[in-house]
Amino acid sequence: xxxxxxxxxxxxxxxxxxxxxxxxxxxxxxxxxxxxxxxxxxxxxxxxxxxxxxxxxxxxxxxxxxxxxxxxxxxxxxxxxxxxxxxxxxxxxxxxxxxxxxxxxxxxxxxxxxxxxxxxxxxxxxxxxxxxxxxxxxxxxxxxxxxxxxxxxxxxxxxxxxxxxxxxxxxxxxxxxxx
Length: 179
Hints:
This protein is mainly beta. The chain folds into 2 domains: 3-91, Ubiquitin-like (UB roll); 95-178, Phosphatidylinositol 3-kinase Catalytic Subunit, Chain A, domain 1 (Ubiquitin-like (UB roll)). Helix content is 15%, strand content 37%. It contains 3 helices and 12 strands, in the order ββββαββββαβαβββ. The protein has helices at 44-53, 116-126, 154-158, and strands spanning 3-7, 13-17, 20-27, 30-36, 60-64, 87-91, 95-101, 104-110, 137-141, 163-170, 173-174, 177-178. The strands form 4 sheets. It has a 4-stranded mixed beta sheet. A 4-stranded mixed beta sheet has the order 8-7-10-9. The protein has a two-stranded antiparallel sheet with strand order 1-2. It is elongated, with a radius of gyration of 20 Å. The relative contact order is 0.15.
């Protein structure tokens, strides 16, 4: 890693990384490392991705894994910045999720950094699924069979869209357990 020399409080020279590498997820299957110079604003991540995607920085939000609110330009990337925590870039605004189950549909709006697991729990409660069977259910995209990962952000599933249609389905059961 490239190093720069910084002076510590007691005047002793110390090695300081020239860039801090931050893991950034910006799509269901899109993730990469973005290098940031210590002292820069965290929104430098949005600047890079907005330029690549051909949109304005204001159209994007940045969420650090585990946080409830988007990061703002007031946040500086310093040497002690938690760059090992994954960062998520989403389009601004909420996602309207329609979940179908049997002959019914339910609709609710979620923040983009809500997880598929949170949507699943809402759907199970909304469709009044027997709690003894709840662990057998999963969410898929409408018309598809592949289970959506519970930790995935619904904003990544929706991508640039403001709506997404999902289906509540029973998972594959074999010999009493999920396969």
